[in-house]
């Protein structure tokens, strides 16, 4: 019995081994992989825990695919770490992290720029601003007094700024009662050097206040009698403005420019040919705006044209009559033409040649410029901009001599007028005394 039992156990054990071996032989790799996945993993739990601990301690990421990283993976990680290190090194360090040696090196290489900046700061108030910085007059005079070299760039720029402020301030105060006083104050400044500034300021003031055109024309007439180049430059810029406004269909620019030319013609600064050419151009191809501009100009200088060129004024009114009867104009423009004929019939009453108090230039001192409308003119805008004069002091002395001569003549004229007035008063007093006796 024992023998059979042992033999049975042995046979059963052999059968089990054979069955296991036959299972291993017959199963496919996919079946073995599925059995291994379904089997418990208690046997490698301790191995995985130990590997996780080692990776967390060393800072390496965990990779489920392999127990130990491959050489290619290690190389790729090293390249990523090197790239991150280079990127951090390219960033500029903060001021706290800069080394003292590096700071000293940078300061030594930039020793010259602080010197240039200091030099620029000295001229910054005037030379670094294109339009010129605002400086109070008292401070500007104090800065001029501190400069010893009168021919230096800084002093010339300061005198230019002072000249510009003085011209603008005087033109803002001009009116009928103080034209002669303003002209005398302008002559105190070097308006030969600042003739571009003076012309620009006059044109800007007239464009802003067209109602004072006769006042600005009287001022230009007085200055033109002393300095004809200033009157000529003003007239050239007016002609260019009128032509520009005519090309661009800018009615307001044409109206202000033609009105100023009309008053300069009344003051004998411009020739009557210029006025007739402007009127003819405006009425050649009539539109509502061009006829309105022509009527506005004709009202101002119609009486003067009637006196000096009756044939020319007749031709202009014939054009207006043709436009009124044959052209299809707006009702408002037709009414303006009818009013213009009524003004002519009344002898331009209410539109005198020169207003009382503005006839300030003697006929012998007047100088008329013959400038046709279609000629090529240069506005000479470079005169509006500061430019260093190598002969600054010589030119200043020359203008002082001219100014003294002009102002002395003005003082003598005013003294003779006062003497004449006093002599007339004395004669009247003597006649009254004789009557009383």
Write a short abstract of this structure.
By secondary structure, the protein is mainly alpha-helical.
Percent helix: over 70%
Beta-strand percent range: under 5%
What is the CATH third-level topology name of one domain?
A: Serine Threonine Protein Phosphatase 5, Tetratricopeptide repeat
What's the average pLDDT? 77
Describe the structure.
The chain is mainly α. The model is unreliable at 1-26, 40-46, 62-67, 99-111, 117-124 and 414-424 (pLDDT under 50). Helix 11 (213-226) packs across helix 13 (251-266) and helix 13 (251-266) packs antiparallel against helix 14. Helix content is 71%, strand content 0%. It is built from 18 helices and no strands. It has a domain at 172-384: Alpha Horseshoe (Serine Threonine Protein Phosphatase 5, Tetratricopeptide repeat). It is flat and about 125 Å long.
List keywords for this structure.
mainly alpha; 437 residues
């Amino acid at each position: 019995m024992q023998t059979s039992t042992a033999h049975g156990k042995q046979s059963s054990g052999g059968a089990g081994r054979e069955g296991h071996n036959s299972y291993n032989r017959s199963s496919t790799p996919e079946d073995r992989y599925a059995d291994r996945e379904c089997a418990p993993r208690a046997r490698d739990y301790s191995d995985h825990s130990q590997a996780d601990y080692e990776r967390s301690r060393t800072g390496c990421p965990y990779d489920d695919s392999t127990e130990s990283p491959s050489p290619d993976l290690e190389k790729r990680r090293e390249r990523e770490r090197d790239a991150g290190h280079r990127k951090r090194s390219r960033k500029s360090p903060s001021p706290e992290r800069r080394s003292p040696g590096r700071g000293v090196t940078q300061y030594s290489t930039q020793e010259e720029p602080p010197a240039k900046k200091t030099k620029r700061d000295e001229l910054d108030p005037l030379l670094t601003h294109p339009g010129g910085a605002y400086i109070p007059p008292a401070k500007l005079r104090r800065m001029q007094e501190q400069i010893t070299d009168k021919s230096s760039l800084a002093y010339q720029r300061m005198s230019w700024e002072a000249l510009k402020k003085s011209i603008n301030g005087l033109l803002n105060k001009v009116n009928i009662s103080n034209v002669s006083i303003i002209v005398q104050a302008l002559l105190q400044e070097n308006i030969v050097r600042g003739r571009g500034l003076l012309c620009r300021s006059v044109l800007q003031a007239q464009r802003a206040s067209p109602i004072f055109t006769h006042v600005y024309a009287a001022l230009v007439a007085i200055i033109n009698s002393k300095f004809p180049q200033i009157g000529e430059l003003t007239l050239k810029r007016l002609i260019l403005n009128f032509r520009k406004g005519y090309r661009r269909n800018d009615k307001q620019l044409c109206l202000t420019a033609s009105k100023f030319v009309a008053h300069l013609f009344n003051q004998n600064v411009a020739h009557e040919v210029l006025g007739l050419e402007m009127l003819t151009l405006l009425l050649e191809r009539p539109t509502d705006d061009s006829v309105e501009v022509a009527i506005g100009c004709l009202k101002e200088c119609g009486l003067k044209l009637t006196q000096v060129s009756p044939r020319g004024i007749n031709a202009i009114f014939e054009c207006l009559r043709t436009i009124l009867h044959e052209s299809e104009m707006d009702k408002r423009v037709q009414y303006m033409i009818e009013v213009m004929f009524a003004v002519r019939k009344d002898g331009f009453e209410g539109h005198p040649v020169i207003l009382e108090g503005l006839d300030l230039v003697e006929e012998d001192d007047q100088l008329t410029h013959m400038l046709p409308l279609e000629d090529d003119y240069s506005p000479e805008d470079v005169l509006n901009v500061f430019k260093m004069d190598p002969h600054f002091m010589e030119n200043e002395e020359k203008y002082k001599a001219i100014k003294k001569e002009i102002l002395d003549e003005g003082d003598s004229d005013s003294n003779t007028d006062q003497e004449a007035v006093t002599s007339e008063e004395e004669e009247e007093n003597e006649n009254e005394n004789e009557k009383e006796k």
